[in-house]
Amino acid sequence: MSTLSYRTAGESHGKALIALVEGMPAGVPIDVDLINHELKRRQGGYGRGGRQKIETDRVEFLTGTRLNKTIGSPITLLVPNKDYRLDDPDKTPPLTRPRPGHADLAGSVKWLTTDCRETLERASARETTVRVAAGALVRSLLKLFHIEVVGFVRQVGQARASIPLLDDPSSPLFYRAEGIDRLRELRDASDLYCPDEQASEQMRQFINSAKVAKDTAGGIVECHVFGCPVGLGSSMTIDGRLDGRIMGAVGAIQAFKGVEIGMGFATAERPGSKVHDEIFYDPAQKHLPSLGFVRRTNNAGGLEGGMTNGMPIVVRGAMKPISTLGKPLRSIDLKTKQPSEAGWERSDISAISAASVVMENVVAFEIARAFLEKFGGDSLTEIKANYDTFLSLARQLPFP
Q1: Distance between alpha carbon 157 and the CA centroid of its chain, in Å?
Q2: Distance of CA 59 to the CA centre of its chain
Q3: How many whole angstroms separate alpha carbon 4 and alpha carbon 368?
Q4: How far apart are CA 185 and CA 173, in angstroms?
Q5: What pLDDT score was predicted for residue 52?
Q6: DSSP character at residue 67
Q7: pLDDT of residue 255
Q8: Phi (first) and psi of residue 269, to 5 degrees
């Protein structure tokens, strides 16, 4: 079978957005409701702008499925744009005043034009719609092997969420499905997609202040992956290291400027004895993905040597404030080279909640890619057999 991969096509105000997913095995039931639910969540969140009132994102399958199951061929996902106006020059006029922080200037120079329009149409975060669709698609596969992915907002401004379910080392969340369900319940109760309501209120105040000041707000989003077996990814090749692939996928999301796994940058401030997670063995937990090898801390964020170690994967990404400000920053006009205010395009005050949905689903895609590299086959039946055989062998350690 081919390696699981995807690519996207489409512009912010074009006819549609498309994702082509290759490498999905045959026989996987598709959870269309999950995909549409994730698309709807991507459109929500506190601080979003007028575009989300226009669009109602729902996925259409053009190829690669039959009777709501994958058939092994490339899968084409399409999400139509209701706000289609790219070919109307009156509705999408040239933009010659690049916005600081956006792709406008670099793209205009790269493609030798004074009109930033073509660059911004593709660089727009609207493209993440079909990244979410692709990630949600492969979660139909991950769920069959009890791998769950949960993303949320951790911080906006100085307001940082406290989440005992995750932050307390003695929490049972690492291994219990009801803990994951509770985390989602707390997250979904917040219009910030933050599991801490007190922090959510402080985040709202920060975003409101930015709106009054005609400014914008970013933040930090966090994603946890539960249920990964030991050994996804590889230390043998550079491109096989799962931590690097996850960081690359998250860092490629529009407006993301920093990524860390586990304790991340804080590891630089501590000695090794306060960083590395000691290993214990509990035969009562041999049935879990950790195979009984347990940790009392998870500073590594579930990844060591580029491979999963049985603990939950923990990833954080820093999203910068959106580049289109209500009070434009200084720029120049590309036609005249004279000082000017930056151009204006309809935008959000904050898209941090949506960013958590995008991150959750691009991480899910990288997990599914690594999972199929380890256990892959042309059909779901073959993959299940490979997975069961591996776990059976691994539980026989030490080998004779």
Answers
A1: 21
A2: 18
A3: 8
A4: 13
A5: 63
A6: T
A7: 95
A8: -95, -5
Contact of 9 with 76, CB cutoff 8 Å: no
Cα separation, 68 vs 368, in Å, equals 19
CATH code for residues 5-394? 3.60.150.10
Q: Specify the pLDDT at position 400.
A: 62
Q: What is the CA radius of gyration of the chain?
A: 22
Measured CA to CA, the distance from residue 368 to residue 234 in angstroms comes to 14
pTM above 0.70, yes or no: yes
Joined tokens for residue 399: 């080998």
Residue 202 CB contacts under 8 Å (≥ 6 apart), including other chains: 156, 157, 158, 159
Cα separations (Å) of 165 from 255, 318, 389?
Answer: 29, 22, 33
Helices (H), the chain: 32-43, 51-54, 104-110, 117-123, 128-143, 164-167, 177-188, 197-212, 242-251, 352-375, 380-394
- Positive/negative CA dihedral, 196, 200, 206, 207: positive
Name the DSSP class of 189: T
Q: Centre a 10 Å sphere on the Cβ of residue 77 and count the other Cβ atoms it contains.
A: 25
| Residues of the chain where predicted confidence (pLDDT) is lower than 50 | none
On whether the CB atoms of residues 262 and 314 are closer than 8 A, the answer is: yes
Domain boundaries, the chain: 5-394
Q: Which residues of 235-253 are buried (b: 16+ CB within 10 A; e: fewer)?
A: eeeeeebbbebbbebbeeb
CA-based nearest residue to 317, from 287, 345, 352: 352
pLDDT one-digit tens code per residue, 99-150:
999 999 999 999 999 999 999 999 999 999 999 999 999 999 999 999 999 9
| Residue type present at position 259 | V
Best CA proximity match to 159, nearest among 212, 213, 217, 198: 198
